[in-house]
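Supplementary Text 2. Reproducibility record for the structural model of the 178-residue chain.

All settings were left at their defaults, and a single model was retained for analysis rather than an ensemble. We include the record here because the model underlies the residue-level annotations in Supplementary Table 4.
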Amino acid sequence: MPHIELTTYVRAFPETVFDACLDVDVHTESMGGSAEQAVGGVTTGRLKAGDAVTWEARHFGLPWRMTVQITDYRRPHGFTDEQISSPFSRWRHEHSFTPNPTDSSVTLMRDVIDFTAPMGPVGGLVASLILRPYLQRLIARRNAYLAATLARLPRPSHVDGAAKMHGDGGAQMGHKTA
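Retained model, structure tokens:
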């Protein structure tokens, strides 16, 4: 079974990164290269425990459709999405968010993906040689988009256990403001 692990440093607190990763609109914006769209289940806003979303996209010039459900939800530490239906025989994506030990305003965002392609040994070969590298690049591009988007936002600072915003605090991640 192919396995992917990625760690991305994001200049935002874990709560902010967690929420951004569950935002359907931000996900759609980050996947513009594959024209990914939410077409079923929760199609806008933030996913929560038990929610499902159906994605349609184009990969390798072919239409793909995948429905996943949030099966584990531990705000702000992590969540897991698992396939309900997809071209894969199995898909499980764990997301975790940990403050950087040397700078608590930076989050270590970790993705762990396990998947199995259909078609037995032939599918396993395709998964190892083609799908795994492709998916690793796709998730890395999504993470880079997310990190860059969050880096542009006003950042809260923690003072006496409460969060205060620096800047106007009016920007919403991934959405254009007037």
